[in-house]
Fold this sequence. Notes:
By secondary structure, the chain is an alpha+beta fold. It contains six helices and 28 strands. Helices cover 17% and strands 38% of the residues.
Amino acid sequence: MKHGRPISGASVDARGRGRGGALSLILxxxxxxxxxxxxxxxxxxxxxxxxxGSTAAQSxxxxxxxTIAPKDGAKSVDTSGALxxxxxxxxxxxxxxxxxxxxxxxxxxxxxxxxxxxxxxxAASTTYKVHAVAKDSNGRTATQDSRFTTLTPKxxxxxxxxxxxxxxxxxxxxxxxxxSRGITHPEDVEKAITVRTxxxxxxxxxxxxxxxxxxxxxxxxxxxxxxxxxLDLDGVKGRKGVYGEQDKTVSFTIGRNQVxxxxxxxxxxxxxxxGKVVKTLPVTTGKAGMETWNGQLVISEKHKVTRMNGETVxxxxxxxIKDVPHAMRLTNSGTxxxxxxxxxxxxxxxxxxxxxIGLRDARGGWDKSAPGAWFFNHSLIGDxxxxxxxxxxxxxxxxxxxxxxMSWEEWKK
Length: 413
């Protein structure tokens, strides 16, 4: 070979030096090659001074900036108004807030993508994780994460509600909840109560004072309706420094449609199912000066036997009956429809009560065929008793569960 001889000749004359020269030549070529590769990159980046490599690195980074309040690791965070997520130089595309148990908090990204707002308050004494993503005008994403813990309230409030979970009630039964503390943030509390129905019907809440809210539809419930109420009150601020502590779901079912009409002049009560009279019973109502309320009254309690003492309703010394049979409450002020064994021939003939609606009954309630016993056994809490032609006024809507005496327009105000 043309290039083989000189190498071979060198090997004959000086083998050791020839091998070393060849090795040095190879290493030298490699060194030049390595230097050329490395030096070429360095020269392009630093020697030219145009900064193209630095600009390329920056172009891969989003200009969007995500901000989360409260800051990561924050403690004793307020349950309302403290959580805020925002983006500048870009738009929010994803915000996920959840507890350590994976329970998510819903929220809404604003139309301009600049902010995210939670749709509800946060629970107390709970750790939350926030993950937010934003994109800049070039579609490049930026992310931010935060973790914080909400406050443990020193003062709390509870709601006592009716009807009970799992109960079957009449068509006039509202869902009524009374709070242990006066509420000064009613919108926040009402927002934390959700009423769902099957079949669907519009249900609205109405506040009576600052410690009670009732929910009902425009007209009596349809028989068979299933009602579910979510009380998401844990952490909701009811008033300054006072937070709810309930997280509960209550369900009840509307039974058959029964509405009874008492005529205070004719002294009769017509018991109707689905608008048809199934029984007519003689009654006695409030005598002159102690007339029975007019209006739509809802049965709120049932007692097989109870004591009625005039002292409790301003009629001190007039009566104290320890064994009133088959009593059902209609107002908070003391109006009942109940069995009566002491009124003699008053039923269907004259009004003799102190404002209650009386039905003939046996002492001890043993006679199941007596009108008092029959009506008691065929009534549900939530059934409606309508009183007409009495010489008294219409019952106040908050005197018992009697919000049906308020127009729908007024109810929704």
